[in-house]
Amino acid sequence: MIKKYKNPIAKKIKRVKIMITVFSGGTGTPKLIQGIKEIYPEEEITVVVNTVENLYMSRGYIAADIDTVMYTFADMIDEEFWYGIKGDTFIVREQLIEMGTTELLRLGDKDRATKLQKAILLEEGWALSDIVELQKDKLGIKARIIPMSDEESEISIVTKEHGEIEFHDFLIKYQCNCEVLEVKYANVSPSPKLIESIEKCDKVIFGPSNPITSIRPIISIDGVEDALKEKEVIAVSPFVGKSAFSGPAGQFMNAFGYETSSKGVAELYKSFLNTLVIDNQDEEFKEEIEEIIPNVIVTNTFMKTIEDKINLAKIILE
Amino acid sequence: MIKKYKNPIAKKIKRVKIMITVFSGGTGTPKLIQGIKEIYPEEEITVVVNTVENLYMSRGYIAADIDTVMYTFADMIDEEFWYGIKGDTFIVREQLIEMGTTELLRLGDKDRATKLQKAILLEEGWALSDIVELQKDKLGIKARIIPMSDEESEISIVTKEHGEIEFHDFLIKYQCNCEVLEVKYANVSPSPKLIESIEKCDKVIFGPSNPITSIRPIISIDGVEDALKEKEVIAVSPFVGKSAFSGPAGQFMNAFGYETSSKGVAELYKSFLNTLVIDNQDEEFKEEIEEIIPNVIVTNTFMKTIEDKINLAKIILE
Questions:
Q1: Distance between CA atoms of B155 and B148, rounded to whole angstroms?
Q2: Which of residues 70-89 of B touch A (CB under 8 A)?
C-alpha cells in the first residue's frame, strides 16, 4: 500500500469531533473525500455509496463507485479516470483481446481482482456490504463504506435516438450523445447499516456527484428521506451556471424536470437540505436559492489541487 | 507467440501421410504431442481431450487438460507443472491473496484470461467445442482440438479415509494420499465432432495418460468404443513395472480391478487395442501381454528430452 499523503495545511485545521456520513457517487464526491480525509479522522467518516450502476462484466462484479471510494481512501485511485488503480497492469485484458474478447470497461489486473473477489463471494452467498467491509479492511481503510443496498439494482436511460438503453452503453458506447427522456431505476431495500448510518451521524454531506444517477437513488430508498429530515444536511452543487462539472448530470436533471443549475439542485433536495454550497461564479443566484433552502455558502467548488479539496472540506465541516 | 522450435532430427523423419487422432489427458500425452508435432503436420492431427476434470473456479472455467494441449501446441506450456503458461505473471492471484481469497489452483494472468474467456462465452451460450476452436485458432494452432463432450462432466473419488471427495481435492488438498475405493463420473454425450474424428482418421493414438481418469472417460462415451473397434489403435503404456510415470494412475487402476502395470492397460483396452507400446524395462512381460492384444512394441517410453519424445512419436507413427 501507498503511504498516505498528509498535506501540510491539514495541520492547521481545528478538528470538529462529530460523526459524518457522506453520500457518494463515482467522481465528484471522491475528490471531496480526498480533502475530508486529510483533515478528519477516518474512523469518524461513513460513506454511503450508490450501487445502481453495479453490474456483472467478464465474470467480475463491477461496483465502480464503491471501488472508487475504496481506492480513494487507500490512495490507490487512478485520478486520470477516477476508476481503477493507479499504475495497474493490463495483462489479463490484453490476453483477452488477443483471444478475441474486448471488454467495454478497461480493467487493470489488480482492479480485476477486486471485481472477481466480489463475484466469487457473491456466488458464495455473501452480502455486498460484507464483501465491501472485507475489502476495505484488507486495504487498510478505517472509514466505514456502506453500499446503499445489497440488492441488485438496475438503471436504464430512455433516449430519443435509441429508446431504452443500459446506463453503461449511454456512457461508453454512445458517449452521452443522446437526448435523455427518462432515467429509470428500480426501488431496492436499504443495506442493513444504511438508515443507522444516517441516524447516528451528526452531519450528512452530499458531495458534488450526479444528483440524479448517484445521489437520488440513495434518497429514493425507503426511510432515507425521513432520516435525512432529522439531520443537518449539507450538499455541494455539482453545477456552475448551467453546466455540470463533469458527466451527463445536466441531461438527467432536465429529464426529471429540474433546471441544470444549483437552483435545480436546491429544488431536488429542498425537503431536507439545510445548506447548499455553490461556486463563487454562481454568487448572483445566492438569494434566489435562499428562497428555496435555509442556507447558501458561496466558495470555490472547483477541486483541482489537494488544497482546493481541503479548503472545500473545511468549509463543509466547520 | 513463441517461435516454434524445430529439432534437427525432425528433418530425418519420413512423413507418413495419414490423419491421426490422439486421445489425451493432462500430462503424459502432451509430452508425446511435443514429439509428434515436430515430425508431423499439425493439419493432420486431431486431439480428443478429456473433460471430466473441468470445473468452475474463481469465476473462470478451468478445462486444464484442454489448455495444456493448446499451450503445448502453441509452445507456451509451463513444462515445470504441465499446466499454465511459461513465464506468466501472477498479479491477479497475488492481489486476491492480499484481499483474503486464496485459490486452490495457481492461475497466472494470461492463463486466467483463457479461463475467464471460456466462462464468459459459456455464459453467452457458446458450446465448449466452439470456444476451444476459437482459442486454438487465436493461438495459431493448426491441429484440431476436440473436447470429448460439451456437457458438464463430474468426477469424484470414493476414498477409504474421507468418503467421496472431489477429484481436485484428491489431487491437491490430499495430495493423492488416500486409499481409492472407486472413481465415479457421469455419462456425457459426445461433442459434435468426436465420433467423426475417430471414423475419419487412419490411426488412433492413446498417449501415456492416466487410463482411468483421462482415457477411460472418453472411451465410455456412447459410440466411441464401437468406432475404435474399426480403427488401428495404438497406446503407450503409462506404467513401468508396477509404478505409474506420474500421478495417481496406479491407485485408480486398482480401484477398477486392473493390475497397475502395462498388462493391466492391455486388459483395460483389449476390446479394440491393436498395439501397446511398453518400456524397455518391461520387456519380460511382452509375451504375456501379447496373449491379451495382437502387438507389443518395446522401446524407451521415458520422455525426458525432445529427442525422446520425437523417437517415441516416430515409432508410433511409422
A1: 14
A2: 89
- Dist CA B218 CA B23 (whole Å): 8
Cβ atoms within 10 Å of B296's Cβ, excluding its own? 22
Q: Could you tell me which of A60, A73, A62 has the C-alpha nearest to residue A24?
A: A73
Over the range A76-86, which residues count as b (16 or more CB within 10 Å of their CB) and which as e? bbbeeebbbbe
Q: What is the mean pLDDT of residues B16-41?
A: 87
Q: What pLDDT band is residue B104 in, cutting at 50, 70 and 90?
A: confident
Matching residue, cell 472509514: A143
- b/e B55-94 (16+ beta carbons within 10 angstroms → b): bebbbbbbbbbbbbbbbbbbbbbbeeebbbbeebbbbbbe
CA-CA-CA-CA torsion sign (B14, B15, B17, B21): positive
A147 backbone dihedrals φ, ψ, rounded to 5°:
-65, 140
- What's the CA gap between A265 and A318, in Å, rounded? 22
Q: In this complex, which of B96, B113, B119 lies closest to A99 when CB atoms are compared?
A: B113
**Model confidence pLDDT, tens digit, residues B61-103:** 999 999 999 999 999 999 999 999 999 999 999 999 999 999 9
Q: What span, in angstroms and rounded, lies between the C-alpha atoms of A207 and B48?
A: 58
Measured between alpha carbons, how far is B248 from B216 in angstroms, rounded to an integer? 15
Q: For strand B203-206 and strand B232-236, is the pairing parallel, antiparallel, or unpaired? A: parallel
Residue with cell 489541487: A305
Residue by residue, DSSP assigns A78-120 as: -TTTTSSBTT---HHHHHHHHTT---SS---HHHHHHHHHHHH
Give the three-class secondary structure for A311: helix
Task: Using a CB–CB cutoff of 8 Å, tell me whether A119 touches chain B.
Answer: yes
Query: How far is it, in rounded angstroms, from Cα A262 to Cα A246?
Result: 14
Element housing A276 (H / E): strand A275-279
Which residues of chain B make contact with A112, given a CB cutoff of 8 A? Answer: 92
> Which pLDDT score, from 0 to 100, does residue B127 have?
98
The label of the residue with cell 503404456 reads B237
* CA distances, B304 to each of B202, B237, B279 (Å): 28, 16, 14
Chain B residues lying within 8 Å of A91, measured CB to CB? 89, 91, 109-110, 113
At residue B183, what is the residue type?
Answer: V
Half-sphere exposure of B293 (CA within 13 A, CB side): 28
Residue A250 DSSP label: H
CB-based contact A59 B123, cutoff 8 Å: yes
Residue B289: partners with Cβ closer than 8 Å, 6 or more residues away: B262, B263, B266, B276, B278, B296
Nearest chain A CA: its distance from B195 CA (Å):
28
Nearest CA in chain B to A114: B96
Mean of all residue pLDDT scores within chain B: 91
How long is chain B? Answer: 318
Q: Report the distance separating Cα A86 and Cα A80, nearest Å.
A: 8
